[in-house]
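Entry 14. Structure prediction run on the chain below.
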Amino acid sequence: MPTEHLSTRRRLTNRQDSSPSVDLKYNSMTTTPILGFIGHSNSGKTTLLTRVIECLTASGLNLGAVKHHHRTFSIDHEGKDSQRFTVAGARKTIITGPQQTALIEQTPAQLPLDKLAGSYLNDLDLILVEGFKQTPMPKIEVQRRELKLPLISRSDCHCDPNLIAVVSDLEQDLDVPRFRPDEIAEICGFILNYFNFQPSRRK
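Output returned:
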């Protein structure tokens, strides 16, 4: 087994708590695997993703999360020292404290997902992404009956070959598994199995 998988397994099984861990045996990719969550606005993507992160983290996975934003945004505060560095011309500014570190980087265009994963998230077990629906990666689509909108990945004009499951409260015939929004344990079990993360119990 490659060295990186052995070290990741050791990191997971040596944690000092009693929640279940996973034994990492995902060998089909040389980089951190990525799973996208897509869906129409207000379909419940963020709510579902938050619960999935909680569940998979409890299984011992070290996760990364990426949120796709369509507009310019700011996470720094006007007048603060770090914001003044950026305004003065710093292309990268790091804010660090006892329990958190944040990097603010000025980019000429939106960074592609593979660049984000390779540059910032390559020390993790799995990256969960909200958005980036055009990016070729395994995807789970979230659908909400109340919106009365069809699936993005299964329509008359588009069939995304990267769709691996659907989370929806609408019963329908699909060529991929469908889970209800409240089936968090089943969804996480599917994800663990898809990426060949084998669950085990810490001793």
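The first helix runs from residue 3 to 13.
Filed with the rest of this week's runs.
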